[in-house]
Amino acid sequence: MGYDLVIFDNDGVLVDSEPLANSILAGYLTELGHPTSYEESLRDYMGAAVHRVHDLVLERTGQRLPDDFDETLHARTFEAFERELRPVPGAEEVLATLVEQGIAYCVASSGSHERIRVGHRVTGLDEWFEDEWIFSSQDVGKGKPAPDLFLHAARCMDVDPARCVVVEDSPLGVRAARAAGMDVLGFTGMMPAERLDGATGYFGDMKQLPGLLQLPV
After folding, report:
1. Burial class, 93, CB count within 10 angstroms (exposed 0-12 / middle 13-18 / buried 19+)
2. CA torsion angle for 175, 181, 187, 190 (degrees, to 10)?
């Protein structure tokens, strides 16, 4: 085993939230007069903290989003999560293998702590994570693609960044992991490998991950 810590992104890697969240985001932005397709939402915002939405809309249109944008977006997203959210197929099996092998892991997500915990509760993944293994962009000054979040997670887990591997499904996340000096495995469940340029390796099915981590299966 070449790593002491596996750092998982959350949305799209552990919980199958990206289709729901990006459909809601695209619809809400369009409703507010900023026409956005589902594909454009994936391209521009997948893997990013919500402040990126504010920044890009202001940059492109010169207009600020409403003061209650975050609150409304989160409310709509959480409502959909409660009805429809599922774990990514195979995610629980990977976590079980890590536990069996005694390999430390955590989650480092651009989403808020509330979003992470709601998603984990609804999907049952909360059984696999202690509170101190959950890290959010809320914990640091800059979200992905800055390396701050991953470096913060490694520091809190007391592991050298060079001994960490990140599991990511977004271009912003891959850039952040590389900037942190970490290897990164690109999950191509939604995003093609060419969009995850710079990853150490690629996989399209969670069943493949233990092999890439050189774990017994």
Report:
1. middle
2. -10
Low-confidence ranges of the chain (pLDDT < 70): 1, 216-217
Residue 33 tokens read as 């007069």
Q: What confidence score (pLDDT) does residue 93 get?
A: 96
Side chain identity at residue 65, one-letter code: L
- Asked if 120 and 133 touch (Cβ cutoff 8 Å), the reply is no
Q: What is the dihedral of CA 155, 46, 167, 200, to 10 degrees?
A: -100
Residue 59: per-residue pLDDT: 97
d(CA 27, CA 44): 14
pLDDT of residue 47: 79
Give the list of residues 6+ apart from residue 110 with CB closer than 8 angstroms, or none: 11, 47, 48, 49, 136, 137, 143, 144, 149, 172, 173
Q: Which helix (H) or strand (E) holds 104?
A: strand 104-109
Tokens of 210: 């233990």
- Beta-bridge mates of residue 187: 203
Residue 141 vs residues 55, 95, 147, 149: alpha-carbon distances, Å: 15, 29, 10, 9
Query: What does the angle CA 99 – CA 109 – CA 158 come to, to the nearest 5 degrees?
Result: 55
- How far out from the chain centre does Cα 13 lie? 6
At 184 the pLDDT is 97
Which residue type sits at 116?
A: I
154's tokens: 């490694």
Q: 158 forms bridges with which residues in the sheet?
A: none
Given this model, what pLDDT does residue 215 score? 72
